Amino acid sequence: MPRDPYEVLGVSKSASQDEVQKAYRKLARKHHPDRNPGDKAAEATFKEVQSAYETLSDATKKANYDRYGFNGPPQAGFPGGGFPGGGFPGAGGGVEIDPEAAQDLFNNIFGGRGGAAAGNPFGGGGDFSNLFGGGGRPGKGKRRRPAADPVESDVTVPFAVAANGGSVGIEIDGQRIDVRVPAGIAEGKRLRVPAEATGSSDVLLRVKIAPHAYFRREGDDLVLDVPISLPEAVLGTKVEVPTLGGDRLEVKVPPGTSSGAKLRLRGKGANGGDQYLVFKVVVPPGQVEEKGRQLIEEFASLYPQTPRANVAWK
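The structure assignment produced for this chain is given below.
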């Protein structure tokens, strides 16, 4: 039995979506495989955190969990999801009835096709087709069931799968189905699962993309914020950065890099897009000591600037 998703994320049942997302980001960042290479326990925890967020970030899934737990809402119709779902009562709607096989069983139990006089409590010549909706009479083909209306639902796709393509597992009537996700799929797009796969009706899945611990998407491009110090921005440096594919690259930060400057890594984005590094200059916190202040003032006198000379709001 999986753990309670509230317990996994460390939030209360009254937590807001913003609190749920903040808890998810913190845990995903801590246990991400990129930060814990080869650590199976961290990988398992990361997957558990992803699953918990998928439940609590979806209003319908959250409401169903709060009311029914992991078992989900009960099947409609007979107890256990019987005839209306296409199966025997108690079978959870998962056992399909073949009308011809049912007719043979009916004949063996009630003595052929002699109607009520031959022990047929249903009358009408002992034809099971009226009960199960099929064509069980010899010499006649089976009648096809009318197509059911498509069922719509939400599915949360991991960030990397939405970017690079892959598959996500969903559960329909107790059956696990792997759904293919094309690379670069966008939030709100729909994935169709045909009735042949579900055994009942088409399912239309509205895509929700789980947030990443540190990447964000802009179309097919990925964006990563890279903090650098004031000396690194002025003098230039080299920094190691991650990619969504899992490898890490050493990139050169040119001297004189301002906060907000971008560096492009070609082909490292989603679906053939690029990855952009956005540099954020971080200055020392609090008051600077006298010696540091003198050095900064000397630097300012050597390299005078007017950074707000051409802003639109002046």
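Interim note for the steering committee: DSSP finds ten helices and eleven strands in the chain. The radius of gyration is 30 Å.
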